[in-house]
Write a structure and sequence with these properties.
- This protein has 326 residues and is an alpha/beta fold.
- The protein is built from twelve helices and 15 strands.
- The strands form five sheets. The protein has a seven-stranded parallel β-sheet with strand order 3-2-1-4-5-7-12, sandwiched between helices. A two-stranded parallel sheet has the order 6-15. Strands 8-11 form a two-stranded parallel ribbon.
- The chain binds NADP nicotinamide-adenine-dinucleotide phosphate.
- NADP nicotinamide-adenine-dinucleotide phosphate (NAP) binds next to helix 1.
Length: 326
Amino acid sequence: MKVLVTGATGFLGKYIINELTEYGYNVVAFGRNEEIGKNLEKNKKVIFFKGDFTDNEKLSEAIKNVSGIIHAGGLSTVWGKWQDFYNANVKSTENILKLCREYSIKKLVFISSPSIYAGDKNQLNVKEEDAPNENNLNFYIKSKIEAEKKIREYNDIPSVILRPRGLFGIEDTSVIPRLLHLNKTKGIPIFGKGEQYIDVTCVENVALAVRLALENENAIGQVYNITNDEPMMFKDVLELFFRKTGIKGKYVKRNYFLAKFLVSIIEKIYLIAGIDKEPPFTKYTLYLMRYSQTLCIEKAKKELGYKPKMTVVEGVKKYVEHNRRN
Ligand SMILES: NC(=O)c1ccc[n+]([C@@H]2O[C@H](COP(=O)([O-])OP(=O)(O)OC[C@H]3O[C@@H](n4cnc5c(N)ncnc54)[C@H](OP(=O)(O)O)[C@@H]3O)[C@@H](O)[C@H]2O)c1
């Protein structure tokens, strides 16, 4: 089977390609970064296709001759213009859905995000059906909700939605670099005792879930939370990472209500002044650090046969050893 992977040049995309080609799939790797794309072709089962997925003609060319699509590409950050999020996350999804119809694609797997659950409260064991219909905490979240709505609207397309939480691994572009940067500069803010429970996920486990969603006929029309199924306290996750790297964790105790007040003013100023650069802190990152959020993955375990193949400790160890060597 030949599968198109969007976001192939990104963090998750490369792991999806490894997982799929290991299991005999041929991959059309879609992305804009030619250098990374050419590198992907060292794997003989991969053909790189350079393109922007808001460009329908390019996408249409790439989709010819594939029978499955993994839409893992997108604009994945906490700040930016609505139009950019709309184009990269909503319009691209609709373009792909239309082409799925035109080319009778057998399965589309869409990578959404559990950030759509985020809010000003603790949330334990969140189930897929707990997702709100609207959440305007930031444009990224809004765009993922809109993209999911598009998937449901095109209900003749055999599609599956995955919501993987807090990805980390080698070449991570988001979670670990952000924490390291904070640790090096202002310190990592701790609200309360840092005893909030969170879920993180080894990127290898997400790639596994993607393959299972692609292969499982019963997954059509379904949504699945994906985590490592190892909820941990925020501070324990940090300590585990810092212990293995030998870095000393720099924590700063913060008052939540004061932080919330300041962040809402900062966000307003950035919005009114049209500043594209990400503010030093956003409401979303504040909620992420202040509240517990764990996801129930019983549905993925039961229906997809998903069982994480790497533990958090193994994932951290692999990351640290790789960074030590390079
Ligand atoms: N990282 C997480 O913790 C996390 C958690 C939940 C969900 N997700 C979701 O998982 C997916 C992958 O995330 P990631 O961490 O791998 O992100 P990433 O490293 O930032 O990669 C994003 C990918 O999307 C591609 N892309 C963006 N706009 C494009 C466009 N207009 N045309 C073609 N390609 C475009 C990029 O291509 P180029 O680099 O070639 O431009 C890149 O390959 C995203 O949908 C994200 O929302 C991530």
